[in-house]
Structures are given as structure tokens and as C-alpha cells.
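so i finally got all the pieces together for this one. its two components total, 533 residues if u count the protein bits. some of the lines might not be protein, just check the labels. i wanna see the whole assembly predicted at once instead of chain by chain like last time, that was a mess tbh
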Amino acid sequence: MKYACLIYDDGVPTTDEAEQRQIHADYMALYQDGLKSGSIVVGEGLERTDTATTVRVRDGKRTTTDGPYAETKEVLAGFFIVDVPTIDEALDFAAKIPSAKWGSVEVRPLWSGGA
Amino acid sequence: MERGGVVEPDVASLDRLFRSESARAIATLARIFGDLQRAEDAVQEAYLEALESWPARGTPRNPAGWILSVARNRAIDAVRREKTATKKYDLLARLEGAAISDPMTNDDPIQDDRLAMNFACAHPALAPETRVALTLRYAAGLTTEEIAAAFLVPLPTLAQRLVRAKRKIVQSGIPFSVPAPAQMPERLPDVLAVVYLVFNEGYRSSQDGELVRVDLCRDALRLTRTLCRLMPGEPELLGLHALMLFHHARRATRVNGRGEAAPLEEQDRERWDVVAIAQGRAALAEAQRHRHPGPYQLQAIVAAAHATAASWDATDWPAIRRAYDALYALDPSPVVALNRAVALAFSGAFDEAMREVDGLVEGPLSGYTPALIAKADLLRRGGEPAEARRWFERALPSLATEAERKIVERRIAECATV
């Protein structure tokens, strides 16, 4: 089954450069492992929410606003799509995402086309 | 199909037999489908067939095997009829190749199916109240009506919760499988916690004389008994089984003739269930052989010290204190600290215990009713009735059951007359 692991946090919890490098290295190691084993379909980090633009279409009319969908402290910071046998492996993967230590990872199955 | 039966069963007894014998079929089909609803639908078809065939041809000698085999055939028919199922051929292959061994011989695949059902129902991706409902429905075999009545939840609410849970299991890919040994230490506590919740709900409510709910204690014991058979040599499972047996053994004396929650020292020990106590001791001894004490085992040691003492005065308080010391090392929570302090008071170190209780009541447990009661009771025993009365009065408004209120009211009266 395919699952989205949606990473929410309010930024990297440290200004220490060595620690930031370590977090980056942990992400890279997880990504390389996942690609090699075939469990990761795709994984991306997102730019900060002040770069976001939100689009809505109402009655055929498009409105475009500057900023994210919702102003919250914890924001969507990145995501992985993984392809694993059951939710157990998806939860194990989510627990290995570095941001899980200070933010939250929401695990959701991809829509399978059912009602 | 065998024709073993001689008695023509009426619908009610057929119903009962079918329900108790269909748990294995549901477990096996749920594993194959990864879907409880499909498993139930297939077993429902088998039920309709049993209604026709059992009274006419006699109850099969092996009802569980009959149900599984008929339900599997109906499931194969149902999957064949589906036009759009993407996994149609995969499912058919799994249904046709399924290990349908004779349930009478307790072959491994079926044992594993039932165990897998327990783990699926207690999966951490489900909400705790949902885990309880699923476990009672599919591992303990209660009806939706029985579960709704036991938890005082309206039937439609409970039914809706089960429907949503079954959908989540399918859509989020919760597996019907027994965790690998490496995962077991993380997953078994979830299964045990659900069973203990069921037991405590029954235990707590029995104090209010709600007889319909007392059965939950028996249901919980039935679950641990089955789990002990399916998963031998798990010390915490044995520990939980022992703990519940010791509590259950005292069920007849927990409320006295005046409707008060009877203090342990006033309970008539002659009326404790000696069979349950013996079973509890056996389970605890087996748990202790593994030399790996966990929280349930340590609580069972405390419960055993009470259940096996000839009298209140003969209680082995140092053993209780040691068990709480070990429990505190595993779980250094204020509630464990409170219990440890009480055990310390009865082991002779009264003043030290009082200081510990004071620290807890003025700190992390200031809003915890059992802590207020513990402090009041120590003051009463220590010869300070006026102070004791003040603390009993403080605890009174937040007591949950009528029986607890009655005993505290008696204590208040006693403290006033001293």
C-alpha cells in the first residue's frame, strides 16, 4: 500500500550549525536507505510558508492570495510517499523521520479509488 | 459435512452455538481479506445456510469447521460475482489456497488467526475506545447490543464506531497478523491494556450493583485465558491474568451489607473465591519463573499478598512494599509513589510514609481523590480524627460510586464521634 507521511513542524529546533548539518545528514541517510530498499516513492521538503500562494476557484472565478492555506504555528514542511505492505511499516518509517523528534508526522493512505 | 447431532436445535440455541463457533471463521477470513466486513458477510451467509441445514440434518460434529468451510465457499462465490474488484484474482487464489485446517486439532494457522485478530483489534492506529469495542466484538464474541449495554453507549453510536473502525482497518492497511518477536514487546502491551480496560470497567461498575456489567470481568478473564493458551510463556500476559483473578476472587465481598465499599480489613475472607485465588497463584508462579517482572506481574504480587493473607494483620506488608519499589523503578509515577508510601506506613515506618503522602497530596496528586482518601485514612489511624475528617470531607464530592460515598460518610461520622 502507498502512504503519505506528512511532516508538520515549526522549523528546525536548533540554530547550531553542527546540529543542523546532523539533521540534514540524517534526512539524507533515511532517503538513500528508502530509495535503495524501494520503500520510498518520493520525498521532498518544502520552502517556508511565506513563499506560499493559495488559489481558490468559486463560481468559476479564481482568487489568488499570498500566504498559506491556514496560518498555524506548525506547518506542512515536507512529505514522503512510501510503498510498503501494511500500516506497521509506514508507522515505523514515520518514526525514523528526523522531524518526528520535534514535530509531528501524519500518516495517511493514498486514495485507492474507492468510495 | 458430518452428521453428528441428534438433538434438533431450536433457533436460540442454534444462534448461541453458531455465534460461539464462528469466531474462528471470522478470524481466518479477516486475515485472508484484510477486511472484517467481508469476513462477517461471508459468515452471515453461512448462518443462513445453518438455519436451514442444521435443524434438518443435525448439528455438524465440528461446527467451527463447518462454518469456516461454508463461509469460505460463500466468500469465493461473492468475490467471483464482483466485476470491478482490482484484487479479485489475488483474493480468489488466497481463499482457495487458504490453510483451512481442522479447528478441532488446534493447528497453528487457525491459532495464529485468532491471535492476529487480537492484535488487529488493539492496533495503536485505532482510538482506545474503538480498540475495546473491536476486541469485545471480534475477539470475545460479544454482540453489538451487549457491548453497547456494557458501556452505557447508545446502540447506534456503538454500531457506527464499529463501522468506522472496520473501514479504517481496510483503508489504512491495518494488518491481521501476529507481530514478529522483535515487535512483540512494543505491541503486546496494547493488547493487554485493552483487556485490562474491559476488566476495570466491569470491576468498577460492579460496585454500583450494575449486575449486567459484571460480566465484563468474566469476558476479560476469558480473553486472557485464551491468550495464555495462544501465546504461552509471556510473563506480562500471565501477570495480568493473575492480577485480574486475584481481584475477581474478592468480588463477593467488595460491597458490604450496608452498601459500602468494604475496606479490605473488614472483608470476610471466607467468602473469597478460593478457586480463582489458586488459579491466580498458579499463573503468577508461572510468570515469575521467567524472572522478568513487568508492571502487571508486580501488581499481581501485591494483589496476591492480600488475597493469600489469612487475615488483615497477617498481611505481608514488606513484600508489598518491595513490589511497589520494583514497580516504581519501572514506572516512577506519583500514583505508584502513593501506593508505595501506604505500604511503607503499614510496614512500620509511619512517619516517613506520612511525609511522602504529604508531598504527593500537596504536589502532583492534589486533585487525585484516592490520594486525599489515603491521607485521611493515615491521619485516622495515626490518632488525628479532626484532621482526618477534614480530608475525608474534601474527597467526598468527587467520589464516583455510591458505595465509595457511603464508606467515606461512615468514616466522617466515626471521626466526629471520637
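Chain A has a mean pLDDT of 93.
The longest strand of chain A covers residues 75-83.
anyway lmk what u think
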